[in-house]
Amino acid sequence: xxxxxxxxxxxxxxxxxxxxxxxxxxxxxxxxxxxxxxxxxxxxxxxxxxxxxxxxxxxxxxxxxxxxxxxxxxxxxxxxxxxxxxxxxxxxxxxxxxxxxxxxxxxxxxxxxxxxxxxxxxxxxxxxxxxxxxxxxxxxxxxxxxxxxxxxxxxxx
Length: 157
Prior knowledge:
- This protein is α/β, with parallel strands linked by helices.
- The protein has helices at residues 23-33, 75-78, 112-125, 130-140, 145-156, and strands spanning 10-13, 16-18, 39-44, 51-58, 61-72, 88-93, 104-107.
- It has five helices and seven strands, in the order E-E-H-E-E-E-H-E-E-H-H-H.
């Protein structure tokens, strides 16, 4: 039986060719962009809240943040989540006008261009490890990850 997959509008952002169409897409995109928003992910789970992260609030200072992922922010209310138990909603579409002011909403669909610029700045300031450089070089040569790992192991002795 053939499964008909659903795709969003075409976009050109990093490794994504289509806009997100569900909550899993939001989770993936947040994983790609979390450093852009000064987050460090502690855990991601299927129960509420979906993510526990640390957010940079100053030099050498981090605050724990409870994050709920939703495709549409209004789903937070529809799912019956307790607003006192979440700090941030990360969504593709922010359509919850009555969202409590205490909850920050990060609407990814409106931030892609800005996030890509910030992410590029972060990457240019980061030096790749020897392993990352080796992987990139070997992937461009057409090797798969098992072959790369084997070559790396041989090089390391």
